[in-house]
Design brief:
The complex is a heterodimer of chains A (291) and B (580).
Chain A lengths: L1 H17 L2 E4 L10 E7 L6 E6 L16 E6 L2 E3 L4 E3 L2 E3 L10 E6 L6 E5 L6 E7 L4 E2 L5 E10 L5 E9 L20 E7 L2 E11 L5 E4 L16 E8 L1 H16 L18 E14 L2
Parallel strand pairs in A: 2-18
Antiparallel strand pairs in A: 2-3, 3-7, 4-5, 4-8, 6-7, 8-9, 10-12, 11-12, 12-13, 14-15, 14-17, 15-16, 17-18
Chain B lengths: L9 E7 L2 E10 L3 E10 L1 H16 L3 E19 L4 E24 L4 E27 L2 E23 L9 E23 L4 E23 L4 E5 L3 E16 L3 E14 L2 E17 L2 E12 L1 E4 L10 E4 L7 E14 L3 E18 L12 H4 E17 L4 E15 L9 E2 L6 E12 L2 E10 L3 E2 L4 E4 L21 E4 L6 E2 L3 E13 L4 E9 L9 E9 L7 E9 L6 E9 L1
Antiparallel strand pairs in B: 1-2, 1-32, 2-3, 3-4, 4-5, 5-6, 6-7, 7-8, 8-9, 9-10, 9-11, 11-12, 12-13, 13-14, 14-17, 15-16, 17-18, 18-19, 19-20, 20-21, 20-22, 22-23, 23-28, 24-27, 25-26, 28-29, 29-32, 30-31
Classes of the chains: A mainly beta (291), B mainly beta (580).
Chain lengths: 291, 580
């Protein structure tokens, strides 16, 4: 009797140990289908909206086509007449947003709660070129760069000074360690245009939970720069709203921590009521690197 | 823990398939007695070779050595100086460990020799307490207990990796040992008096002083190249003290009550957190079989519990109040009724409501593991509310005995900084909990037992869907904001914090015991089945990924939810016990 019980236990234990890890039903934790909208608008362009329905966690198919929505924009509580065209799930209005206007966006898609968001584009900063030299500076590593300094005057904060290096060697990278980190909660994104080509880099200054400011360089290549021959160079400074920065911060945090099982997952920030997504704006300032 | 037998030496040894335990008690001279018990499970010792064998069939080159056990030891000595004065010393030490070691033999293509690489990872919880208590009877109406107590609770998480070349003496072993350690340590001195003034009043009063030492978590890394470093927040100290006075009152046969006041303080660094905590309860017997009771209490708790609620093994961490983080405070009120029913049944029903302020939760993106950041920067402070009802049906006497307990409960948290300011369920919010325990004397020497447990799954923050990130491609400037992050196309949508649930937990245990009086004691054979119907209750969940290709077609990512259940099948057991 005892021998039998012992043997039965060993066999069952073996079966059990194989089954310690097992898959559970696919749709147990959500089936997707939550409506959302993303939009990053700027006064220089018509306002457009990317609509989406979330996919279930285990669904690896493409995002489905959204039925035609009813999109309404209220500017200072007045309904704006809109003409809407679509490309896939991106919906273009014919409306150019403006600074200082209190906007309310409402988007209705049959079968889903109405999405709404309130947004306002703050007063743009002004930017000026402090210094720029077309004489290359040689680094101790043998590389060369053109020093460049910008001043960005944010109406919310003080004037911020940013020092950049335009790398003289096209295939070299810079991580912008010379960027001055100043007390701002706006993200700054800098482009360099050379003729029709865009060479870009990006720096986001994000306010941390503890109030400190951290700089993120979204991208490990800075930009390629092949000298000043034959083309004019133009810098574009982009200034983002705090809602977008909060959103971006949460996206980065989720991605950085999701592989750690001992970390509280990060919920991605949304300012859209009734669904998901982010609606915020940005300003752009252009500076030419003149001869 | 009860006192050891003062009259004679007695003991018990139980040897089972998955655990063994032993107890010994008896007198030491005329005035002293002792009692010791020890227990150790060794399910892993039996299961390990089987797991290893099964794994070898699938992965011949990998050796697995899982370990999962708990062990504890209890000891108590009591000494009677006189009829008025007694001294007790007790100690408890327990440890739970869950770990896995894997080794794989591979061939170094350059050298043409085999090498062994592997790793070990796991978790260890430990709890130790020691208490010295002196009981002194001043008069038949007044006695006091004075105790000095030490306790330590801690947990370790370890990840080790190594590479060995057993056939090549000139190549040294390479290893990296990582250990995360956190513990909380208390030393406490307290005196409690119990004074029966008369038939109406019984006073209880006392004083307590506790020193608290908290190691919030240190991460150490030891490498074979000689590197040995420890990173962690500094330890934190605190003093906790309280005095209290309570009066247990009885007014006639039907009405009784208790009223009291606790005055406490917690001092840490330069900050003092004083608190006055009134407590009151009243009980009224409406009918010989029906009693109603009500209570109210305020509390201050200088310890906070921190848990994360994502995928992965749940780990509770205790952290103290600090200069920056105040103790949690709260109040609780309850109203209940107890009634005697036919068939020797007792039924009690109680409703409760509790509010708390100053409770903690991890902020998004933080957990205990990152030792570079002070734990105080990882948490947010908010409030909590719990309410519900408890129902208990008991049958304490008769051939068949047992009880059934049911709790219907809600537990919420609300933090301005978390979950976009919306309230959310606490990790241990359980809507239903039901425990049923029955025991029956089948024959004179045969007892049978049944225990069934059911609990709503814990609240978790799991992905509920996937959403595309803001896509800036096509904007006038032609730039793609997130182009440089190829995996940043989408993010996980978690819904509200803790809005998902683990699968419900339920389990049935059955046992039958045969007792026989032998010449030198009582022998008991016990046979049973743990998890009788093989419910796979997951301990944690994980989201897995794999790429699949059908008929040589493109590789497509497949996702799946995976659960880990430590006891996924019925586990029969038996034990032999001899008590003398």
């Amino acid at each position: 009797m005892n021998r039998f019980l012992f043997l039965a236990c060993v066999v069952l234990t073996a079966l059990g140990s194989q089954q310690c890890f097992y898959r559970i039903e696919h749709d147990r934790f959500g089936t997707g289908g939550v409506l959302g909208v993303n939009s990053l608008y700027t006064p220089d362009s018509v306002w457009s909206f990317d609509l989406f329905l979330t996919l279930a966690v285990l669904d690896t198919s493409d995002y489905e086509r959204i039925p035609d929505p009813d999109i309404r924009i209220f500017a200072d509580q007045e309904l704006v007449p809109l003409s809407i065209t679509r490309e896939g799930n991106r919906f273009f209005t014919d409306y150019y947003p403006e600074h200082g206007v209190e906007y309310r966006v409402e988007i209705a898609v049959p079968g889903h709660p109405v999405l709404s968001a309130e947004t306002r584009l703050g007063t743009p900063a002004s930017a000026s070129l402090n210094s720029f030299s077309k004489e290359t500076v040689r680094t101790e590593w043998g590389g060369e760069y053109y020093p460049l300094s910008l001043s960005i005057e944010d109406p919310v904060n003080q004037t911020d000074i940013y020092d950049f290096r335009l790398e003289a060697q096209g295939n070299y990278t810079s991580d912008y360690r010379d960027t001055t980190v100043l007390n701002t909660r706006w993200g700054i994104h800098v482009f360099f245009f050379s003729g029709d080509n865009v060479t870009e880099t990006r720096t986001y200054q994000l306010e941390q939970e503890d109030g400190s400011i951290a700089t993120y360089n979204l991208g490990w290549e800075a930009f390629e720069f092949s000298g000043f021959e034959e083309v004019d160079y133009r810098i574009e400074v982009q200034q983002y709203g705090p809602e977008f920065i909060t959103y971006l911060n949460s996206v980065v945090s989720q991605r950085e921590n999701e592989s750690n099982p001992y970390t509280q997952p990060t919920q991605v920030y949304a300012n859209v009521v009734g669904g998901l997504g982010i609606i915020d704006g940005f300003n752009r300032i252009w500076l030419d690197l003149e001869e | 823990m009860r006192e050891g037998n003062q009259q004679e030496l007695k003991g018990m040894v139980s040897v089972g398939l998955v655990a063994s335990k032993a107890m010994l008690e008896g007198p030491i001279g005329e005035k002293t007695s002792f009692l010791v018990t020890a227990r150790r499970t060794y399910f892993d010792v039996i299961a390990s070779p089987i797991v290893k064998y099964v794994n070898k069939l699938e992965n011949p080159e990998v050796d697995l050595k899982p370990r999962a056990f708990f062990t504890d030891f209890n000891g108590k000595i009591n000494h009677r100086f006189s009829d008025r004065s007694r001294l007790y010393f007790s100690v408890y030490a327990g440890q739970d460990q869950l770990s896995n070691t894997s080794e794989a033999t591979e061939t170094d293509g350059d050298l043409g020799v085999d090498y062994i690489s592997g790793g070990r990872d796991g978790l260890k919880w430990g709890n130790t307490t020691a208490a010295l208590r002196w009981n002194y009877v001043f008069t038949p109406q007044l006695f006091a207990n004075t105790s000095l107590t030490y306790s330590r609770y801690g947990f370790d998480v370890f990840f080790d990796e190594f590479t060995r070349y057993p056939e090549v003496d000139t190549i040294e072993d390479v290893f990296a040992n990582q250990l995360y350690e956190s513990f909380l340590e208390d030393i406490s001195l307290r005196t409690d008096f119990d004074w029966s003034l008369n038939t109406q009043h019984r006073l209880k009063f006392g004083v307590n002083l506790t020193h608290q030492n908290f190691e919030p978590g240190a991460f150490s890394l030891t490498l074979s190249n000689g590197m040995d470093t420890t990173i962690g927040a500094p330890s934190q100290q605190g003093w906790r003290g309280f005095v209290y006075l309570e009066d247990e009152m009885r007014f006639g046969e039907k009405l009784s009550g208790r009223i009291g006041l606790h005055a406490s303080t917690f001092i840490t660094g330069e900050v003092n957190y004083p608190s006055l905590q009134p407590r009151a309860s009243v009980r009224y017997q409406f009918h010989p079989d029906v009693t109603v009771k009500a209570s109210y209490a305020r509390m201050q708790q200088p310890l906070h519990m921190l848990v994360t609620s994502g995928v992965g093994l749940p780990i509770d961490q205790w952290v103290p109040a600090t200069e920056r983080i105040a103790p949690a405070v709260g109040w609780v009120t309850a109203l209940g009724v107890t009634t005697q029913l036919p068939q020797q049944l007792t039924l009690s029903v109680e409703g409760y409501y509790k509010e708390m302020d100053g409770v903690l939760e991890y902020r998004d993106g933080f957990g205990f593991a990152n030792s570079r950041i002070d734990w105080q920067d990882k948490v947010a402070v908010g409030s909590g509310t719990s309410y519900g009802m408890e129902l208990l049906l008991q049958k304490p006497t008769g051939r068949f005995t047992g009880w059934a307990g049911y709790t219907l409960g809600w537990s919420w948290r609300e933090f301005e900084e978390l979950n976009f300011g919306e309230r959310f369920p606490f990790r241990y919010d359980r809507r239903h909990t039901l425990v049923l325990a029955l025991s029956g004397q089948i024959k004179e020497n045969m007892k049978a037992g049944l225990a069934w447990t059911y609990a709503t799954g814990e609240a978790l923050t799991l992905p509920q869907g996937r959403a595309p990130q803001l896509d800036t491609e096509g904007y006038p400037s032609g730039w793609n904001l997130l182009r440089d992050f190829p995996f940043f196309f989408e993010y996980n949508y978690y819904g509200s914090r803790n809005s998902s649930r683990m699968p419900d937990y339920h389990r049935l245990d059955l046992s039958v015991a045969y007792e026989k009086q032998k010449k030198r004691g009582i022998r008991t054979w016990t046979f049973g089945v743990y998890n009788a119907y093989g419910r796979r209750n997951p301990l944690y969940l994980d989201l897995g990924y794999e790429a699949q290709s059908t008929n040589g077609g493109p590789w497509i990512e497949q996702r799946y939810w995976e659960a880990f259940s430590p006891v996924p099948a019925p586990i029969p057991y038996f034990s032999y016990q001899f008590a003398f």
